[in-house]
Write a structure and sequence with these properties.
heterodimer; A: 222 residues; mainly alpha; 6 helices; 0% strand; B: 59 residues
């Protein structure tokens, strides 16, 4: 069972790499072939959002039932999600350089929002690191997790849509519409998103198992 | 759609002389090697968990 979704993740990502480079794409000035970055850059953010949602789910579960295992899962998911910000931002910067002419611009609300969201989650890890008592640490991080998730949603999903943005789908720019995502591209884009989300679940699973083994070892030591 | 607009520069040449498929294969090889590595780590972790369980049962 568990190996099936891993294989599916690999197949879908592989499909998006081959199909993503080989497929015919719409021709746009400025974007040119870089439109294919959609298949690789955007799924990073889907994986991040998915993992942060998983983290929130386990944080809420921990707050309801006080089960330490839920807390471990919540932290691991936040760590995996946090990791996906790195490829997400790096690929975005490269794409921005060739199309917008700059690696980073504070004129784009989505970039600002992402930077803020990353800071909010950085604070989450610092907060965790600063509390000694395990139970207090777990409760504090679960409560802060809810706050961090809401802030992230405001910063990257709501605010960018209320002002002008260079990103498609914001400030009246179309995204996922017939203008910039045709059916050929959807055929690659959706598998890519599902593939990367499944891949992130795999990373999460390994992370959780390592943490649980570590906890066991610590128990023996005591 | 803009599929037919040949005035916009795309990697048509790369596709015509058939060298793009090399890039695709290289990408696939890199990704697959990472996946194989990940699977190996996964297996190593599983054996660790198994050992842990056995030790637990003995105690």
């Amino acid at each position: 069972m568990s190996i099936l979704y891993k294989l599916l993740a690999v197949i879908l990502i592989l499909f998006s790499m081959v199909g993503g480079l080989w497929n015919e794409v719409p021709r746009f000035a400025i974007l040119n072939e870089s439109i294919r970055n959609l298949y690789f850059h955007v799924p990073m953010w889907f994986a991040l959002l998915f993992q942060m949602s998983v983290s929130l789910y386990y944080a809420l579960k921990f707050l309801s039932y006080q089960n330490m295992e839920d807390h471990v899962k919540s932290v691991c998911a936040a760590e995996v999600g946090y990791f996906f910000a790195l490829p997400g931002i790096l690929t975005g910067m490269l794409w921005a350089k060739t199309t917008w002419g700059t690696y980073w611009t504070f004129a784009d609300p989505k970039l600002n929002g992402v930077a803020m969201a990353i800071l909010v989650y950085t604070a989450y890890f610092i907060l965790r690191a600063s509390v000694e008592d395990e139970i207090k640490k777990a409760k504090l991080s679960a409560v802060y997790n809810v706050f961090a998730y809401v802030m992230m949603m405001v910063f990257i999903m709501i605010l960018p849509r209320m002002t002008d943005s260079l990103h498609p789908g914001n400030g009246g720019n179309p995204a996922f519409s017939q203008y910039d995502l045709n059916n050929d591209m959807r055929m690659v884009f959706y598998p890519a998103v599902i593939g990367w989300v499944l891949f992130s679940i795999w990373l999460l699973e390994i992370k959780i198992r390592i943490k649980l083994v570590q906890n066991k070892i610590n128990e023996y030591a005591e | 759609m803009n599929m037919q607009n040949k005035t916009i520069e795309m990697a048509d040449m790369l596709r015509q002389n058939g060298k793009l498929n090399v890039v695709i294969v290289v990408l696939a090889v890199i990704f697959l090697s990472i996946v194989v590595y990940l699977f190996l780590q996964d297996k190593r972790l599983r054996s660790l968990e198994k050992k842990m369980k056995e030790k637990n049962n003995r105690n």
